[in-house]
Amino acid sequence: MYAASAAPLTRRTVLRTAFTAAVLAGTAAALGPVLRARRPRQTLTPAPLVEESYRGRHISVDLAAAAVRIDGRPLHVMRRADGSYLSGVNHFESFATPMELARAAVDELGTTNLAIAAPHHG
User: Fold this and answer.
1) How far, CA to CA in Å, does 120 sit from each of 79, 83, 85, 117?
2) How would you class 105 by CB atoms within 10 Å of its CB: exposed for 0-12, middle for 13-18, buried for 19 or more?
3) Cα–Cα distance between 74 and 99 in angstroms, integer?
4) pTM value surpassing 0.90
5) Across-strand partners of 61?
6) CA nearest 87: which of 58, 55, 117?
7) Tens of pLDDT along 85-99?
8) Left (φ > 0), alpha (ψ -120 to 50) or beta: where does 71 sit?
9) How far apart are CA 31 and CA 4, in angstroms?
């Protein structure tokens, strides 16, 4: 049998190995947070549903989904890039929380009820 001869270590081989190791370490460091963020987070308790009566109307807000209902009817809520909220009832003013938005919608609606949401086209 023939004995395997070891290739001599050249400067090129050492630099290529070091460069490859550095690229792999940099890629792992960059992708680590991204891959950790993709894992679903477990919550022990569901997000609270906040309910209150305001000016004779029943308001319920699901804080996790920012879903607002006034007297059981859904109010279309949109989240702005700055973290504030606006609705279809009062879309010229932003509000810090969904509850503030719901109170302002009740003020704007007065005694009128929200229309039942029509299904989206599609």
Assistant:
1) 19, 25, 21, 9
2) buried
3) 13
4) no
5) 50, 68
6) 117
7) 998 888 888 999 889
8) left
9) 39
